[in-house]
Amino acid sequence: MDTVSTYEIIRLTLNSVLLASAPVMAVALLVGLIVSFVQALTQIQEMTLTFVPKIVAIFLALALTLPFIYGTLTRLSNQVFDLIVSGGG
């Protein structure tokens, strides 16, 4: 296996991790922005108000996107195994 195939595996891995984590990260960002906006409007500075809704939203997003994440990681493993079997070329 040469450096080109190693870089290809690293590129595939990084792309797959970013793609698989994007839905959950987007939900966390959106919920965090909404909660921060509500806190700024109402001047309520309670720590659990930011933590609890974000955790609940992350778990729901994770449960809903689990098939997508599984498919992305399965596709990555198949591509990496194909590269290994073909000798990297």
TrEMBL record:
Domain of life: Bacteria
Subcellular location per the Swiss-Prot or TrEMBL entry: Cell membrane
Coiled coil: none
One matching Pfam family: Bac_export_3
TM ranges: 12-35, 55-73
GO biological process, one term: protein secretion
InterPro entries recorded: Bac_export_3
Assigned keywords, A-Z: Cell membrane, Cell projection, Cilium, Flagellum, Membrane, Transmembrane, Transmembrane helix
Major localisation: membrane
Cellular component, GO annotation: plasma membrane
Membrane topology field: Multi-pass membrane protein
Family: Belongs to the FliQ/MopD/SpaQ family.
Name assigned to this protein: Flagellar biosynthetic protein FliQ
Species annotation: Pseudodonghicola xiamenensis
